[in-house]
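Notes continue from the previous slide.

Worked example: a multi-chain complex. Inputs as given:
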Amino acid sequence: MNFLNLTKRNIRRTPYQALAALMVMFLTFLVLSSFLLLATGSQQILNYYESKPQAIAFFKDGTTMNDVKAIQTSLEKTGKISKFKYVSKDDALQIYRDRNKANPMLLELVTANILPASLEISTYTPEDLKPIADIVKKEPVVEEVVFPEDVVASLSSATRLIRVVGGGVVLFLISFSILITIMIIGFKIRIKRDEIETMKLLGASNWFIRMPFIFEGIFYAAMGAFLGWLSSFLILWYFEPLLLNNLGEVAAIIFPIPIITMLLFLLSNLFVAALIGAIGSFIAVRRYLHI
Amino acid sequence: MADGCWKSRVAIILSNSYSLNNMVSFQNVSKKFTTNITALEDINLEIKKGEFVFLVGPSGAGKSTLLRLVAREYLPTSGKILVDDKDISKLKSNELPFYRRKIGFVFQDFKLLDDRTVLENVALPLHVRGVSDAEIAKEVERTLKLFDIWNRRYLFPKQLSGGEAQRTAIARAIIGKPEILLADEPTGDLDPETAWSVLQLLVEINSWGTTVLMATHNKEIVDLQKRRVVSLKAGKITKDIKEGGYSH
């Protein structure tokens, strides 16, 4: 009879404790998976905005390519620019047409003349954006400078908040799960005291007695991790159409979630589960199993 | 002078062979549980390899404590216990399981694991030793047939009669081929006929060379067996008779 069989027997003998342990682990890992998904999703959205042209300088009519090049040269000297992209009036019209192809009325009203040429300017960091925008604004050929400062700022703070709150809640739940594992494994050790005494007298080594309890703790955590992971992705799958409708083009960078990402989530959950189960049951064994 | 040398050499050889033949040796052993309760006091006892010894005495005399000291469940408060010439008090915790594999223990209340079948209970000592499943299956079948409980192998302890349960417990105790068998009131809860059959099993096990220490209250069995009887009273040995009867 191997350790796994002994573990299976331990679990079968006390189904209510097993269920309680599983439910706590499930809750922990559902929250952990959900926060991981939120943090990853918001980080991806943030990355998207950060990698997009941060500032767009719209030029007055009559601006020449030489004027644009002069601006590019002066901006490059700052060392803060990662990329430029010039969008001519014709390019702007094409973009407009692509975005509004479902609405022919809007297409009829717009020509290339009424759309301004623009320069999309990417910086290495969002912090560099404002000083660059200030420089560009001073150029006489520039009509207006827009940049999604507010979006990036609020996304950055939302991502930070998700990380801090999520991290705090997950840490709390992990501690709670470890304590529950200690309690349940400790309880099981107590009700099996006579059996443990007998096994000791039969010459069972310390690890022969300890291992089934440690495996049991790991089993609860691993099962909870798997169920939590599965549920979080099922919830996300359920809300996918809603998110696609509301997030627009940003949703396209999140969905569909690649299989490899889902498996990485599962692996990280299982890794944390192994740690929780092993730490909890090991403490219980050290605390309650006096061999 | 030469004669004296020869005699002393013989004396040395005899004392060495005596020491080599000792399986268990208690040397001035005392066991106190609290400052007020003395379970055993200044016990000196030598048990040879292959010997069958009855431990008799009233309840609380210290019989079970003596057996548990041999099993190293307890440590002596003072004195030394040598098993196979090794001081068992000095065993490290990782050596203890290996020491206990040399010992079989039979209890009055059987101490069978309720959630395991007869077969699983008897196989347990081999599992803890890491014996292969094929070897375990072969050995368990042989032992269960020997103890006439093969047809009970899939039953749980609660489904067994007292005699069957004790036979299972003895089968479990001896399957690992222990050098010492400690039996603590093994016939205590059994009817006379079953008690007698259990004793016959222990005698047979002893005939294979296993040292047997049996604590008992069963006067009839002790008187009929005519074996070594060590009487205990209030933690002290009061009698140690080679072919004794039940008296303390």
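Summary box: Chain B has one domain: 49-78+92-241. Chain B touches chain A at residues 71, 73, 93-94, 97-101, 103, 105, 111, 113, 115, 120, 123-125, 127-129, 172, 176 (CB under 8 Å).
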